[in-house]
Write a structure and sequence with these properties.
- By secondary structure, this protein is α/β, with parallel strands linked by helices.
- The chain contains eleven helices and nine strands.
- It folds into two domains: 11-192, Vaccinia Virus protein VP39 (Rossmann fold), CATH 3.40.50; 200-272, rRNA adenine dimethylase, C-terminal domain (Helicase, Ruva Protein, domain 3, Orthogonal Bundle), CATH 1.10.8.
- It has a seven-stranded mixed beta sheet with strand order 4-3-2-5-6-9-7.
- Helix 2 (50-53) links the parallel strand 2 (38-42) and strand 3 (59-64).
- Helix 8 (221-227) packs across helix 9.
């Protein structure tokens, strides 16, 4: 392999490189890709996970935004037909166009913590991969897998858990990275539900409702449904729907499970469909 240049981590890109080899192998094992499988690695950086994936899976697609790192990866794997390097922003690139079967692909990555949520929801756009394994800030991992009624439960948990199963796998200490970050990390597995539980229109309605609810998360459900500008249902209709669905309008949004949010979104389809 060509000799790699020494790369200084760029704070602007949220770069912290995983240097613990045991953890590198543990994350790759969590992906569980078969020998003929297709894997997308988001933010391969200096190749910490890449070196354990190359040659063990059927095809590997590397998505790297950093100019120098993308160049190094391209030179390193130039002779391999089973590796494709995309010098691109994962929030902009259409991954499905680079995959043989997008719904059979697996995704893995140690992603920038400052844009974890946008990246996760980008990866959950259709066609959704078979499985996603990500290294994220520990606090965000807790929010992804949070249960209703807990302090970590919010729009992120509802958005993920309505279309996928989410599992926290293991914690990663700060000392496993260089440079050492200020926060602890955790690895999560997100597995999209098959067949799709919601239509695209249902998902759009749900996003509007959940965003409104958690913008006013300290207020009671009745006030949110009645007064939030994205909803503005009025007191009478809010009471009627609450009675129909068996809801307590005195509850706050974190008391509602994802399935209840789905039911509410469908009950208010006429309002949520209004531009």
């Amino acid at each position: 392999m060509p000799e790699k240049r020494r790369h200084r981590a760029k704070r602007s890109l949220g770069q912290n490189f995983l240097v613990d080899a045991n953890l590198q192998r543990k994350i790759v094992a969590a992906v569980g890709a078969p020998a003929d499988g297709e894997v997308v690695e988001v933010g391969p950086g200096q190749g910490a996970l890449t070196r354990h994936l190359v040659g063990t899976v059927g095809r590997l697609v590397l998505v790297e935004l950093d100019d120098d790192l993308a160049s190094d990866l391209t030179r390193t794997y130039a002779g391999r037909d089973d590796v494709e390097v995309l010098h691109a922003d994962v929030l902009q690139v259409r991954l499905a166009e680079h995959l043989r079967d997008p719904e059979a692909a697996r995704v893995v990555g140690n992603i920038p913590y400052n844009i974890t949520t946008p990246i996760l929801f980008r990866l959950l756009e259709r066609p959704r991969p078979l499985e996603i394994v990500l290294m994220v800030q520990e606090e965000v991992a807790d929010r992804i897998v949070a249960a209703p009624g807990t302090s970590a439960y919010g729009a992120l948990a509802v958005g993920v858990q309505t279309v996928a199963r989410a599992q926290r796998l293991f914690r990663v200490a700060r000392g496993a990275f260089r440079p050492v970050p200020k926060v602890e990390s955790a690895v999560v597995r997100v597995t999209p539900i098959r067949p799709e539980p919601l239509t695209l229109r249902q998902e759009e309605r749900l996003r509007v409702l959940v965003r409104a609810a958690f913008q006013w998360r300290r207020k009671q459900l009745g006030k949110i449904l009645r007064d939030h500008p994205d909803l503005a249902l009025g007191a009478e209709r809010a009471r009627d729907v609450a009675d129909e669905l068996g809801l307590d309008l005195a509850h706050r949004p974190e008391r509602l499970d994802p399935a209840t949010f789905v039911r509410l979104a469908e009950r208010f389809a006429d309002v949520l469909d209004t531009p």
